[in-house]
Amino acid sequence: MQKKNIAIVYGGKSTEHEVSIRSARNIAKAIDRNKYNLLLIAIGKNGVWYSKTEEELAKENIVKITPNSLALKPGNTEPIINTYTNVSLGKIDAIFPIVHGTGGEDGTLQGLLKSIGIPFVGPGVIGSSLCIDKEVAKRVLNEAGIANSRFLSYLKSECNLITYEKALASLGVPMYIKPPNLGSSVGISKVTTKREFETAIDNAFKYDRKVLIEQNIVGREIECAVLGNQEIEASPLGEVVTVGEQHTFYSYAAKYTDANGSVTVIPAKLDANLQSEIQHIAIKTYKALCCEGMARVDVFVTESNEIIVNEVNTLPGFTDISMYPKLWEAGGISYSDLISRLIDLALERGEEEDKMQTSV
CB within 8 A of 112, min separation 6: which ones? Predict the structure, then answer.
C-alpha cells in the first residue's frame, strides 16, 4: 500500500503556541512511518507559515523565522509552495492541525484547509467555531437540554454594564471569569471579592473581546474522549485532581508549568451506571455541537451525581500529560493507532465531501 503524505501543522498566533509545539513533537514521534510520510508546517507567532524539519521541531520551543516560508495556492493539486525554493511540498493527503486556541481550533484554520482542498483531522468549521466560544456553546447546550453552569457574558463594548453586584446576585461566589475563546485555562480567574472581580475582568479582556462569568460548580472534574464521524465512541473516563493549596482549580499552571500541580486518575473511580450516563451525555454533547473526528468533553459530577457539562475541546492536547490520548490508551487504543484512526476519519470525511455535487 502506498504511503499517505501527512502534514502536521503546529504553532500559531495564540497563547497556546508552546503547548502546540509539544503536542506536535509527540505526534511526530508516534505516527506510523510504515503508513505515512511526514511533513511539518509551523505557524510562527508572526502568523507566517514555515516548512520545518524534524530536527527543528525537536529544538524549537517557539517557532523560529527562517527563509522557508510557505504560500498557499487554492485549487491546485499541490497547494502549498515554499516561497524560498519555489518548490511545492507535493501532494498532501491529510493535515493533522494541532494549533491550539485562537486561529487554530476556532474554525479559521479549518476553513482555510477546506478552501485549499486538504482533508484534516478534527471537527470542521462549524463544530470548531461553536466549541471554541464557550458562551455560544453553552447557548447551544441549553437549547439541546444539556445541563451546564449558569453564566453571564459581555462584550468589551459593554464594559459599563459589568458589575460585581450583578454577578454576585446572579451567580454567587466563588465565580469564574474567563476569556471564552481560549483554551488551556489561559486567562481564567477564580474570584470571591469585588477587587478580585475587577482585576479578573481586566485580565480576561487582555485575551478576548468578550468575557464569560460562570457559576462555580462543586464537583469532581471528569473528562471523556470522543472519537468518530457517523459512528461515535466514548472512551473510559478520567478524573482531574488538583494538588496543593496554590491550585484551587485546573489552571494553566496546574496543567503545564507545575509538574506536581495535578494528577489524573484513569479510569475514574465511578459507579458503572454513572460512567455510562457520562459517556452518553458526552456523545450527545459532541453531536449537539456538530463535532467530527475527535473532541474531549469535560463535565462536573456533583455530590448528588448531577452531570454538568463544563466545556468541549476540539483539538485536545497530545503532550506527554494530555488526557485525550491517555483516555484512549485506557480504552485499548495505543497512541500510534489513535493517530492512524484520526487520519482515517479525516480521509473518510474528505472522500464524502468530494462526492458532493457542486452543480445543479
Answer: 72
My answer on whether 349 and 233 are in the same domain is: yes
Please indicate, yes or no, if residue 66 is contained in any of the structural domains. yes
Distance separating alpha carbons of residues 232 and 336, to the nearest angstrom: 19
pLDDT tier at 183, thresholds 50, 70, 90: low
85 and 183 in a single domain? The answer is: no
Q: Which pTM value belongs to this model?
A: 0.91
CATH number of the domain enclosing 309: 3.30.470.20
Quote the CA–CA distance of 198 and 339 in Å, as a whole number. 43
Residues 189 and 224 placed together within one structural domain of the fold? no
Count of CB atoms within 10 A of residue 248's CB?
Answer: 11
Whether residues 211 and 331 fall in one domain: no
Residue 360 pLDDT level (bands cut at 50, 70, 90)? confident
Q: Count the neighbouring beta carbons within 10 Å of the beta carbon of residue 168.
A: 15
**Whole-number Å distance between alpha carbons of 100 and 24:** 11
| Inter-axis angle of helices 134-143 and 272-288, nearest 10 | 110
Does residue 138 lie in a domain region?
no
State how far the Cα of 178 lies from the Cα of 185, in Å rounded to an integer. Answer: 8
Nine-digit cell string for 225 = 474522549
pLDDT at residue 182, rounded to an integer: 74
Q: pLDDT per residue over 276-310, tens digit each?
A: 999 999 999 999 999 999 999 999 999 999 999 99
Final residue of a structural domain among 82, 102, 120: 120
Domain around 348: 218-353
Q: Which of 76, 67, 60 is nearest to 28 (CA)?
A: 60
Q: Which of 163, 189, 215 is the last residue of a domain?
A: 215
Closest alpha carbon to 44 in 99, 110, 120:
99
Q: What angle, 0 to 180 degrees and rounded to 10, lies between the N-to-C axes of helices 335-354 and 323-330?
A: 100
| Nearest-angstrom CA–CA distance, 7 and 38 | 6
- Report DSSP letters for 103-115, one per residue: TTSSSHHHHHHHH
